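Below is how a single chain appears once it has passed through the pipeline. First comes the sequence as given, then the structure the pipeline wrote out for it. We keep one example in the README because the format questions we get most often are answered faster by looking than by reading.
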Amino acid sequence: MSENTGEENSPSAGPESSAGTEKYLVFTIQERRYALPAKLIGEAAALEKVFPLPLVPPYVRGIINRYSIPYALIDIGFLLLKTFSAAAKLIVLKEKVDRLAFLIDDVTDIADIPPESLLQVEQEDSQELPSGLIAASFEWKGNHVFCLALDELVNQIKKDFEG
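Resulting structure:
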């Protein structure tokens, strides 16, 4: 039941971004919209079998198998909102980023965003945003979308595994 997008059908494939813009994959987690640069996403798929792991942080649901390659399944809703997600879909990061998959509710769109449309998020100004895990935001089709700080997320996950 996987919605395998493969490299040729991945969000970063196909028509190039308009001049001076970057494609973002927009997805929902617990009724909020988030985005990551599409060039970092390997595929979006339906959640299948998860192999639980002992002694891991609570947001690590376990390991999933994607084409005989193990990926850590991260409940990003827990990392962001401190609430476990009941989501049944995932996005898999490209291996050059890390072997991580994020549990999401759904993919909603692919947005072409010019860099000047990205608004830097002031972490201390917002009580609802997790510190350091949101890099910027933008408006898309009447909705506010938060851009995840992927480097910070990956560093947080690595730090939690080392500690």
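The chain is about 15% helix and 40% strand.

See the next section for the split statistics.
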